Amino acid sequence: MNTTDFLSISSAICPDRDAMVFEGERWTYSQASERVNKLAHALGELGLKKGDRVAMLQVNCPECVESYYAAAKLGAIFAPLNFRAKVDELSYMIANAEARMLFVGKRYVDMARAMLPSLSCVEQCISIGSKEADMLFYGDLVSSSSADEVSSEIGDEDITILMYTAGTTGRPKGVPLRHDGFVSYILENVDPASPEIEERNLLTVPLYHVAGIQGMLAATYGGRTLILMRQFEVKEWLETVQKERATRAMLVPTMLKTIIDYRDFAKYDLSSLQVITYGAASMPFEVISKAMKVMPWARFINAFGQTETASTITILGPEDHIIEGTEEEKEKKLKRLAQSIGRPLPDVEVKIVDEEGKEVPGFEVGEIVAKGSRIMTGYWHDEDRTAQAFTSDGWLITGDRGWIDDEGYIFLAGRGDDMIIRGGENISPEELEDVLHSHPKVEEAAVIGVPDPEWGQQPRAIVVLKEGETASAEEVMEHCRSKLAGFKRPRSVAFVDSLPRNSVGKVLRKTLREQYGQP
Length: 519
Known about the structure:
Layout: H1 4-13, E1 18-22, E2 25-28, H2 29-45, E3 53-57, H3 62-73, E4 77-80, H4 87-97, E5 101-105, H5 109-115, E6 124-128, E7 136-137, H6 138-143, E8 159-165, E9 173-178, H7 179-189, E10 200-203, H8 210-221, E11 225-228, H9 234-244, E12 248-251, H10 253-260, E13 275-279, H11 285-294, E14 299-306, E15 311-316, H12 327-339, E16 340-344, E17 348-353, E18 366-372, H13 383-389, E19 396-404, E20 410-415, E21 420-422, E22 425-427, H14 429-437, E23 442-452, E24 456-465, H15 473-481, E25 492-495, H16 509-516
Parallel strand pairs: 1-11, 3-4, 3-5, 5-6, 6-7, 10-11, 10-12, 12-13, 13-14, 24-25
Antiparallel strand pairs: 1-2, 8-9, 14-15, 15-16, 16-20, 17-18, 18-19, 19-20, 21-22, 23-24
Helix pairs in contact: 1-2, 2-3, 4-5, 10-11
């Protein structure tokens, strides 16, 4: 089975059910399937073939979903891009993917035009939402093509998505994800479409994030109605849940906190919500405790994973969010709720190892590593980073440290690398440092993450100015604003005379975190 079968099966079982809802418009499964086939035919006539890459620069919308399935039906590889990135970052990702086609939303057309002269790989640019004289128009492609079923020879191990994620060493890393990677998770954890069971899935997590893709695929296989929001906005989210009677939602911790703290929260009817899944960053205990209190009818699931694992590998299930039993049992559950990411899913193996890759005894802290059929086999065109990502015997190094208790629950004990995670988005310190070093007054700089009650972490720049120069924190932050996606720029700056280094000159981030890592 491959992911295109998800749409075919649900279209056959519940053709008249809404497949997507977006800003007042609705498409049934039958209509969505027809549009996907039309787009696939149009792309095929433009020369798209198996293995080619198709990039998408647009916020969440039905065209993103349709483009994925159309590309997948041709055996092509879909590359969703972070629409919050700047021109230089996007150009790198598109060139690295060697994308032959670029879909671009209306608000990003000028950005695309700025990039295209340097992107010789892009043969066709397709606009979404507006007709542009120098681009093909998405609506024309769909309206002018055949609705006949499209089929290709697609292997289970063929790559279907190329997703970019931040690394601790500068440029984003391309993560090739296979059909069977997603199929393995979906078949194990999602009930198939049923004519009798209707669920409505509200998706606000961006589709350039693996959790967004997982949510989209799960909704399709389950025959659920996918309610799409362009981007998260708290009032719109509350209104949408109430209006559409959403039964499921996926949120990052920052979103959940914003929702339950909203001044008019109690005025909305959210009683339709049955399941709220959260993940992508650490969840503050105070936030999940309050969420459970103000929405006692909902079941909560903590999903832990990363792009390299095709999303979720461990879950803390609804039963773990029910604090009942003896005082000892309540204490144990409260500890798990505050610190644990749950237990591994059946289709993956997870263990804790020491620096030599040997499994450590229970309750001992080490590196969290994972293995399974859906975990990536390596980074896109990057042998060095691939070699660093795996142990000698083939286990993926997640970058997180933790320990495991006697019942198989895994507890986090911090990152094993320097990655900063802000609101579910990974930030590479080195990428930010490169931008800081380009400031004419900066001699050297390092970046660390500092705790933040709303966003989890915020980047802080530790800066050494050139001799005789003066600069304000605002000046340094403004320099970053123009060159990096907004979420990546530092939110504070500490000026120092020198950076601590070891005997070979490496900056000691641990020392910087100890000295400057407090809010």
